Amino acid sequence: MKKSAVMPMFAFVLLLVFGAFWTWQTPGWLRGSLTPQEVDYHIGMLEQNLVMPAPEKNELLARLRAWALADDGRPFFMLNLMRYYPELRRFDGAPAFSGTPLQSNEYYETAVAPLALSRGAYPVYAGMTHGQNLVEHAAELDHWSRVILMRYPSRRAALELFADPDYAPIEPFKMMAMQLLLLPNHADLVIPELRWLVGGALLFLFMATGWWRAATGRLHPASCWRSILRSTSRRLPTDAVRSNLTTYKQKGPESTGL
User: Is the residue at 217 inside a domain?
Assistant: First the structure.
């Protein structure tokens, strides 16, 4: 019997989709590292559009340039460690906003989400802190408010986000709201949330078992036909008797052999 080509084609399409998604999330193997020309362009855009106090801006751009020039093309994580100010910090060029620091940052996170996601960046986790540090009690290292760990596909993606003209009006809402520590890092170990990992593994086991039983004939489609035939065979005598009775009434006993 000729085998259907549907499943191999379906598998091929799924493989292409996965390959495209993998490349979107790990573009360095295809595009390589940032070039000095790219770094100069993006830093120039940041210098032109970024709104923050001048000393902080100059230090940020210098560190960002050095970090971008050392690009290895790999995905990375960015630790955001935040401490809200008691009230909004005002500086030249900052937008007028009458809310609290918490509300200012909430606006920033909502507005920046589509810009980040369009470049394949997303938060691995985000949440408010619970109390003070358990270790290290120096005031300047304590009393953090919020933690976010972002995953970026590459340093290029991060630099493109920061230099995006649509990002420039959003950025001050974060800088007005908090003292911020940004620490880029590579992951040596990433473990998914174990509840989802175990649930996914059990679902895969269930589906794989069903596929194996069907492929090896342990789930016989013919069993359905056997049930139908058994049901039909039970009705056959009744149908035969009904037919004989009809013939008897029409033609008499000789026609039925009675």
Answer: no
